[in-house]
Amino acid sequence: MHSVRAFNLFFMMVMGLALAACSGGKPESVLETFYRAVAAGDVETAAKQISYQRVPPAQMTQAKGKVQMLVGEMQSRIQANGGLDKVETIDVTMAEDGKTVTVNTRLKFQNGKDHTQQHRLANEGGDWKIVLR
Questions:
Q1: Three-class SS of residue 132?
Q2: Helix 27-40 and helix 60-80: axis angle, to 10°?
Q3: CA distance 5 to 128
Q4: Is 123's pLDDT higher than 60?
Q5: CA distance 39 to 79
Q6: Are 45 and 33 in contact (CB under 8 A)?
Q7: Is the full-model pTM beyond 0.90?
Q8: How many domains does the chain have?
Q9: How many CA atoms lie within 13 A of 61 on its CB side?
Q10: How does strand 127-130 pair with strand 84-94?
Q11: Between 46 and 9, the higher pLDDT residue
C-alpha cells in the first residue's frame, strides 16, 4: 500500500511538472531568450520576458524605462566580458502551487569568466515571466 501511494505521489509530481513545462515553455528558456536579447541589445524582446503584473498602470512607462536602462547596463557588462557564450541552468525549484519557480542560472562569457544569478519567474496566463525585484 505504501509503494502505491509513493508511486501516485511521484506520478502526480511528474505530471504537474510536465503540465507546467508545456504551458508557455520552460522557465529556463525564458531566461535564455532574455539574456540573448540583452546581449544583442534587443530591448523589445528582453522586455517581453518581464512580468509587469505588479506594476500599477500609472507607473508602467517608468517601469519599462527602467527595464530599458537595465538592458543597456547588462549589455555593457556582457560586452566588457567579450560577449555571452552560454546561459546554463544550474537548477529549477518549482513552488508547490506550480505558479512560481526559482531558477539559478550561470552566464558564461567569451573571456572565460562566469556569473551566477538567481531568478524568480511567475506563470502568467500560461507564459513564464521574470519577476523583477
A1: coil
A2: 70
A3: 31
A4: yes
A5: 8
A6: yes
A7: no
A8: 1
A9: 1
A10: unpaired
A11: 46
- Give the tens place of pLDDT for each residue, 53-95: 999 999 999 999 999 999 999 999 999 999 999 999 999 999 9
Cell numbers found for residue 87: 546561459
Q: Which three cell numbers stand for residue 51?
A: 512580468
> What are the grid coordinates assigned to 31, written together?
531566461
CATH assignment at residue 100:
3.10.450.50
Can you tell me the distance from the alpha carbon of 23 to that of 98, in angstroms, rounded to the nearest whole number? 11
Please name every residue paired with 101 in a beta bridge, in sequence order, or none if there are none: 94, 121
User: Residue with C-alpha cell 566588457?
Assistant: 80
Q: Which residue from 19, 50, 54 is spatially nearest to 37, judged by alpha carbons?
A: 50
SS3 73: helix
Quote the domain boundaries for residue 89.
2-130
Residue 35, φ and ψ in degrees, nearest 5: -70, -35
What is the three-class DSSP state of 88? strand
